[in-house]
Specification:
Rossmann fold; UDP-N-acetylmuramoyl-L-alanine:D-glutamate ligase; alpha/beta; nine-stranded mixed sheet
Length: 506
């Protein structure tokens, strides 16, 4: 390994000796995905400020610049930087942001490019945090003066990072929209008041180690390693919206003993208002998934659930709550998991609220054969995956767009969007030509929650009159972001979404 490439402990010792000998330390930090002349000039200017130049890089797992990024691995980026004469030491940061490495290295100067000089231009807002960390260790931040070059722009042009479908779609979006205009439209979602109706689900992941077959029975034996719990169902949708809309409300049900109420309240975002009813003789829904601890593959699912329909009194109270809350909100997002709370009467009432209603009615192992999307009518937007569409139309195969148009007509929906996993999604709006978006996920860790993310962002974008293709683009990026983590452990980040868009459009 190149002698310039160091781990954090060795580098700390080296720099301590340097400081003891009154040497000035300069630190540069970034992704440096494609080393170019702009970087070289940046490092040369930085080196003139002191005696020792350290360059730290964001490791692969924390790079958020869209699919195919980084184009070069952590190891290759370290080697490229180490080859530069102006650079004395290089290191891979162990954290997602630079604040910790700044506090460890304690640079006399922390150098950033001229494009960071105006803090308001930084989508992430991290430059402010980095400057605070530099001030904390007694250093100074310095902005180099040379012309700004962009690795993203060069890689987009020459790097062959994206599929033909992705390139074509991004190109069409870029023709009609600048990054600034997209950022403005996304920010306009802030004022919306959104009501999310649907089941409360606790997604429980039991990570296990396979011990093998039982010696006495044909049973797979697992060792319980760790259990994690996340907010799913309607709560996950609300969380996906929490970075985009200031006012989000949830109307849902807990079990009769209010199980998980404290857990939910302790893990929900502050701008989400919870409205819970109780379902008698029922637990709070828990979907327990046993997962291999190594490859994260699901082995078995066990559900704690009572999916009987609501009683007449529960149904009546539910409708009264919908009536009250619908008046306080701009649009309604319904996620119907088919577990008994949204009865035909409730569905009919939702359809007649006069509000913009966006719907996802999921077919799953607990409701297949009994879940009926056709209990809804006059829906503004229906989001459905390809498998659910074929099931609803009783077709094993066929033209998905033709099937979607038929279902759209049956339930009198203005929009219908069909998701197709890694191949993307399409959106049909009346007689207009359907809009098709490719998938954008770089890595799929867990597909759970991707539909919820798309539903959340597509609904608010369409309600706010954002163009169909841009709405689907934003929603598809949200879905791609959601599949990169286990379950619903993370919600869609507005900052990361905008950052991805900015890199696409360079």
């Amino acid at each position: 390994m190149n002698k310039k490439i160091k781990n954090i402990n060795d580098l700390a010792d080296i720099l301590f000796d340097c400081k003891s000998n009154a040497k000035k330390i300069v630190l540069c930090h970034g992704v440096f995905d494609l080393l170019h002349i702009g970087h070289i000039k940046h490092f040369s200017e930085a080196k003139k400020l002191g005696d020792v130049l350290v360059v730290s890089i964001t490791p692969d797992q924390y790079v958020n610049k869209g699919p195919g990024r980084p184009a070069f691995t952590t190891s290759l980026r370290l080697q490229a930087l180490a080859a530069l004469e102006s650079v004395d030491y290089v290191i891979a940061n162990e954290w997602p942001t630079a604040e910790e490495i700044i506090k460890i290295i304690k640079p006399d100067f922390y150098c950033k490019g001229p494009d960071y000089k105006e803090h308001s231009d930084d989508i992430t807002g991290k430059i402010t945090d980095e400057e605070a960390a530099v001030n904390f260790v007694g250093g100074k931040i310095y902005y180099t003066d040379d012309v700004t070059y962009s690795s993203s722009s060069l890689l987009n042009k020459y790097g062959d990072l994206y599929s033909q479908e992705q390139e074509a779609f991004i190109r069409e979006i870029a023709k009609k929209n600048s990054y600034e205009s997209i950022e403005k439209k996304v920010s306009s979602l802030k004022k919306l008041k959104v009501l999310v109706i649907g089941e409360t689900i606790i997604d429980q992941y039991v990570f296990c180690e396979a011990l093998g077959k039982s010696g006495k029975e044909p049973v797979l034996v697992l060792r319980d390693m760790e259990t994690q719990e996340y907010l799913g169902g309607a709560l996950a949708i609300a969380r996906h919206l929490s970075d985009f809309c200031d006012d989000v409300s949830v109307l849902s049900f807990l079990g009769e003993d209010n199980e998980y109420k404290n857990f939910i309240e302790n893990n929900i975002e502050k701008n989400i208002t919870l409205n819970f009813l109780n379902k008698s003789k029922s637990p709070t829904i828990v979907k327990r998934r046993f997962v291999d601890n190594i490859d994260r593959k699901k082995i078995l699912g066990v559900y704690s659930i009572n999916d009987n329909s609501l009683s007449k009194s529960e149904e009546s109270n539910f409708i009264k709550s919908i009536e009250r809350l619908s008046k306080e909100n701009d649009l309604i997002i319904v996620s119907d998991y088919g577990h008994g709370i949204i009865t035909p009467k409730v569905a009919e009432y939702i359809s007649k609220t006069g509000k913009f209603v966006s719907l996802n009615a999921q077919v799953n192992a607990a409701n297949i054969g009994t879940h009926n999307i056709r209990k809804y009518s006059d829906i503004n937007c229906l989001i459905i995956n390809a498998t659910e569409l074929c099931h609803e139309m009783r077709q094993r195969e066929g033209d998905l767009k033709a099937l979607a148009l038929e279902l759209k007509k049956i339930i009198n929906a203005n929009y219908i969007s069909v998701t197709q996993g890694k191949t993307g999604a399409f959106l049909i709006n009346g007689s207009k030509t359907p809009v098709t978006s490719p998938g954008f996920a770089s890595e799929v860790v867990d597909k759970i929650g991707s539909g919820d993310a798309l539903l959340a962002l597509l609904s608010v974008c369409l309600y706010n009159n954002i163009d169909d293709d841009l709405s689907l683009f934003i929603a598809s990026l949200a879905a791609a972001q959601s599949v990169e983590s286990v379950g619903n452990s993370k919600h869609v980040s507005k900052i990361l979404l905008l950052k991805t868009i900015s890199h696409f459009l360079k």
